[in-house]
Amino acid sequence: MFKVRINPHWEINRGDGKPLDTSVLLSLLRAIDDTGSIARAAQQVGLSYRYAWGMLRESEEAFGCSLMQTGRGRGTRLSPLAEKLIWADRRIAARLSPTLDSLASELETELGKSLGANPAKIRLDASHGFAVAAFLKQAEDASLSIDLRYRNSTDAVAALSRGESDLAGFHVPIGDFEAPSVERYGKWLDPKDYRLIHLAERTQGLFVTPGNPFGIQGLDDLRRPEVRFVNRQAGSGTRMLLELMLNRHDITASMVNGYENTEFTHSAVAAFIASGMADVGFGVQTAAERFKLDFIPLQRERYFFAVSAETIDQPKMRKVIEVVRSNNFRESVQQLAGYDATRTGDILTLPQAFQRASRRQPA
What is the pTM of this model? Predict the structure, then answer.
């Protein structure tokens, strides 16, 4: 089985026909940030000190600005420009990773077909999330082949209903917003035809810049014109949840500065804020922690894999359940900030999963 990985790569054209390749430079800058020393950083990334020093000087000449700051007793630190380069790289990766991961999975399938070595794959359509990423890692370790497409929750369950996938990943809030969310997914998920695999429970809330300089406490602060917001894309489960919550607070899109600025993943929202381009966003706690943002918890929710009742007992699907129920996967989920693996691996009917929502439905 072939494993394809595609990583973002970017260059900066200096106007002289010789673009600056940022890949090695960024690795060196990150190592300097970690070690506080050019010599130790060069050793960490496998460069000679002379080569590393020359690269830094050449890059500074190209930018016309220093990439390092030195001081007695403080070692070597990154300049604001160097820090901005690193944040730019993290934002690029956060925005492009779902698309590149999906493309890599597609290429794996095509290579397998061409070489006559294409094992039966589980077709997974899912909204991008940290528990899903952990599942993919465990599936790879267990030699379980996954054909992945990252797409929003609504599109994922719709694809499952059309027979275009074997699993659909989607998430549903716990409590007052459960019923309207379940109603939307119910267009495609007939209780007689589908079962749910409980993947994880997680916390959604507001990302704010470190120290919370605007004193943001909740959704009502999004009305303030000086607060810049960054949103998730239309159709995503997180955006659907946010819209339900804003409606509860009588907040319309026109009241929120930056409501139409959108990113595709929780990490991309966090990177947007960490880069100083917005002050607040909405997403899962793990992304806030990884980008060193403050987090205001607002809503718990559950993430599920939906599967056809006809296929859940097939060998390949039993393998999926085995991976989800494994100690390694449970531990990896439990280590994610804001995630809870207590019910990970539970198999539920839709009425069992959404008893409260079912009681609200008309007879």
Answer: 0.82
